[in-house]
Amino acid sequence: MDTEKEDDKILLERTANSFLCYKQYALDEFWRPRVLKWESLSEHQKRMLPWYESYLKDVRNGIETNSIFYLNLLEQSVEMWGLNTDPRSWPIPSAVDMSKTVSILNQIAREWSSICAEERDKFLPLVREFLEESFPSGRDTVKILIPGAGLCRLAVDMVQLGFNTEANEVSYHMLMVGQFILNSDLQEEGIALHPFVHSFSHHINRAQQLRQIHIPDLNISERVVGENLLSMVSGSFPDIYGPNINIKQSESYSNSAAIREIRAENRNSKDVVVTNFFMDTSSNILDYLETISHVLKDGGYWINFGPFMYHFEQDHQTELTADFDPCTGEVSNELNTPLKGIELSHEDVIQTATTYFPFKPIKQKAGIPSTYGTDVNDISMLGYQCSFWILQKVSIK
């Protein structure tokens, strides 16, 4: 087993362990401190909140319901991902891993529950209208790539329209949960979850925090099984689909001979790239532009929707970057590089894409209000101003 496979196995088993540890983590982080706070009150103050002990039981029950979902996921994932069957051998999850086990429940609500259908429909009708008009027939041969595919709801929506769709995701949390949802023959609304139980602010009433959602909001097996139109690829978007030149080696762009070969094979391989709440996830958005240009066929389309809330804007960490020879892999000019620093605006991206890359604008619109995995009853209701565009890659002769 080479080093890359060993690293992947460690990450996978650490992710699996974070799901296993979810219940204890959530109880310690969200439930137990409130039990202690309640017990610290005077009897006089406790009488003012006669419902609070029952409420704490409901919080615990919600966490336990979520934990059952994760245990069922693990039962399938151990075999599917080839994990060690003894969880005691799994690496200890990090604080970030544990935080993801909490936040991904909101992601599940965002992609697979009816309560976020209105949120998803900010984008889906726009992309559906264009694709149906552009590809009236032969859609099973039209290759769509969705980087940062999350839990694959958009990919399933594309398959339902008849398109050959490839979902790309780098997060093992997303991949493991997404695979479970897609491959477990789940009945429509057959699973109950409490995604909002961990948030104690911005509620009109306690019932909103404690309420259940049910997933999935459609019968996935009836919609995608048998068509052979959906596939999933794990890995960083630039690493798998980018060119072998113009991007520096980094944590998200490696330089092994096998990866270089994959990148070469992916050149001009897709008809459409759909980026949905994705472009601001890079520490260097130019890497994404290089990759989209590389993977699209001449005449292909780049469809984008999302905000510019750059994930690394406040990040003080650095990563090691370097140049490398695309033929030999020989590394040079190693440098500790800040993760933050290249945060382009909507206009910057369009100007760069149409000036330095072979794109021409087809449609664009800015300032579309949208939320992301937000509880519609959250009275703070923080949202985003999203950009939508369609660019076409033109042939350069």
From TrEMBL:
EC number of this enzyme: 2.1.1.22
Entries under SMART domains matching the protein: N2227 (SM01296)
EC category: transferase
UniProt KW keywords: Methyltransferase, S-adenosyl-L-methionine, Transferase
Any GO molecular function: carnosine N-methyltransferase activity
Listed GO biological process terms: methylation
Pfam families for this protein: CARME
Family per similarity comment: Belongs to the carnosine N-methyltransferase family.
Protein name as catalogued: carnosine N-methyltransferase
